Amino acid sequence: MQPKPLDTAPSVHALIGAELRYHREKKGMSQGEVGQLLFLTGAFIGMLESGTRRMRPEIALKLDELVDSRGYFLRVCTALKDLRQPDQSTEAVKAEQNAKRIQEYAPQHIPGILQTKAYAQAVLRSGLPTAAEEAINELFMPVLEHAKMLQHPEPTVWTVLDEAVLQRVIGGPVVMAEALRHIAVLGRRHRIVVQVLPFAAGGHPAIDGALKLMTFSDAPTLAYLKCFASGQLVDDPAAVAQYEFAFNLIGASALSPSDSLDLIDSMAKHYELKSKPTHKPSTVLLCKSEHIEPDPDHGSALDESRKPTRTEPTP
Q1: pLDDT by residue (tens digit) across 259-305?
Q2: In this structure, how many other beta carbons lie within 10 angstroms of the beta carbon of residue 218?
Q3: What angle do CA 228, 222, 65 make, to 5 degrees?
Q4: In Å, how far from its chain's centre is CA 141?
Q5: Strand pairing of 192-197 and 156-162?
Q6: Helices (H), strands (E): how many in the chain?
Q7: Dihedral, 73, 76, 79, 80 alpha carbons, nearest 10
Q8: How many other C-beta atoms can be found within 10 angstroms of the C-beta atom of residue 257?
Q9: Which of 22, 113, 162, 292 makes an SS bond possible with 304, Cβ 3.0 to 4.6 Å?
């Protein structure tokens, strides 16, 4: 059986991977045999060959010795080390499809895997205000395919939403209500773990941007950092460990999953009432024993719970 042809177009890492396959097959070795000798899995060697995982210098050095590549892999990895990393959003999506666990902090909007169709369209429209409707529809289809991952038992998903995600009205009240209800349903069905990080938590390790961690059964954990129109995958073990610690700190500062679902439900109800022609301010539930008035247009709904209560004098 002929091996599947490698797609070497997407990145320089795919080209390096194609070279690895050439040398491995020249030595008459399988991916599993190479992996065993390097204390890696055969699946991980396959990821290196397809370019979905970056070859690190310490692995390159061992491969050069194993396949007699005369230092090729180490030279290339060393040369690439100091180059400016291109956008790796596509590689991140491919990696996420194989992840066993996804942990994500979302500072500005609902992550793609949790988005509804209307919300995804609204997010894309906000970034491309003059694009044709056909172009928007073409772009959001991959988002919907991405969300279908939740129809399966894996991956495990743990998402921390910044309070700004609940307060920022994307697509209007109707779209927001549907989007938040969708998240609440997934949480109450125990398909995902979701928390809300309140404004009152103050500063935190990921205050500068989004953070995603992807854990695999047969490869080291990846971190993905998202910024404006670009994303970067990080596989350095020391750096990934720092990002894992940062995510744990964020989760520790967030509301509990139960209180978070109550708040998300209450905000969804608020947007539902706000979408009606005549509506009264809704009540947002911070926790099971505390009610507060929301004001998405003028700061944090959570801050209202800290205002002093005025007691009317008794006649």
Answers
A1: 999 999 999 999 999 988 765 555 555 544 344 444 545 455 555 44
A2: 14
A3: 125
A4: 18
A5: parallel
A6: 12, 8
A7: -100
A8: 17
A9: 292
